[in-house]
Amino acid sequence: MLPVAELRGVGPDGLTARILESTQPLILRGLVDRWPLVQAARTSQQAADAYLRRFYQGANVVAMLGRPDIDGRFFYNEDLSGFNFFPANVRLDGVLEELEDHRDDERPPAIYVGSTAIDACLPGFRGENDVDLQGRDALASIWIGNRTRIAAHYDLPDNLACVAAGRRRFTLFPPEQVANLYVGPLDFTPAGQAISLVDFRQPDLARFPRFAEAQEHGQVAELEAGDALFIPSTWWHHVEALDRFNVLVNYWWRQSPGYMDTPTNALMHAIMTVRDLPPAQRDAWRALFDHYVFDQDEQTAAHIPPAARRVLAPLDADATRALRAQLLKRMNR
C-alpha cells in the first residue's frame, strides 16, 4: 500500500477549496496542533478527560461496548446474525471513568463512543476547538474510546477527521475497489454503513482472495494528535485507534444541496426493482440509467420545451419535494 499524500503548514483557518473538494485523500499535518484539547491530551489522559468535562452538561451518549476477547474489533458475530458488541445509552462522564479504570489493563474491554454531535453533547467546545470550512454546512462529531478497530466502510459526505488525542491509522481504498473488499449485508450493519468482512489485521486470502488486489490500490495514513485527514466522499476507510485513550473530531458535509436524497436509497430501490429482471430487461434499464443519469448532459432533454421538461430539468428544493411525494404515493399503492 502507498502512503497518503501529505500537506504541511495549513492551520484551521487555511483550508481551501482545493483541499476540501479533493478527490484523493490528503493528510494535513499539524492542522489542529493548537487546539486546547490536543495540548491537554499531550499532557496526559487525565488532562484531556478534565478538559472534556468542562463542557459536558449531562447529555447521554451511545457507547458501543465489547468484551476483551474481541480485541477492539467491533464486528458481527460468527454467523452474521448479530454483533459482537452491545450499545448502551449512558452518560459521557461514566464512559470517561470506564476508560480511566481500564487504562492499564493488558486486555481491556472495548469502549467506543461514536459519532456524537458535539454541539449537543459538549456545548461550547467548538468555541475553542474548531476549523473554518469556508461556509460549508458541516456536522461536527466526536469519537472517544480506547484501542478499537472499525471495519472498512464508506460515507456519503466528504469527511475531515481531526485527531485530538492518541494515534490513528486509516487504511483507504478508492470506490472502484468495492468488489475486492467483500462487503457484508447492505441492510444489516453494525453502525448504519455496510462494511468489509475482511479482518485487516489478519486478512484471510484463502477466503477473500481479491483483497490482495485491493491492497495494491490501498493508501495508509498514520496520524498523531494534531493531524487531520481529508477523506473524499465514498472512499472506503478502515480506522484503528492505536492508544489507550483516543479522541477524534470529524466534520461531514456534502457538495450537493441538502434537499437531495441519499443515493443509497436509489441503490436499494434498484436492487428491489432491477437486479433480478431477465438479462435483456436489465440491459434495457442499464441503457436508461446511462441515458438519464450517468451520461446525462444538456442534450438529454434538448428536444423538449424547457417549460415541459419537469424532472428532466435541473431539480430545486420544491421540485425535489414534489418528486419525493410522487414516489412515496407510488410505493404505498
From TrEMBL:
Instruction: Check the record and name the InterPro entries matching this protein.
Output: Cupin_8, JmjC_dom
Which segments constitute the JmjC domain? 75-268
Q: Where is the signal peptide?
A: none
Q: State the Gene3D superfamilies in the record.
A: Cupin
* Pfam short name (any one): Cupin_8
Q: Which residues form a coiled coil?
A: none
Q: What is this protein called?
A: Cupin
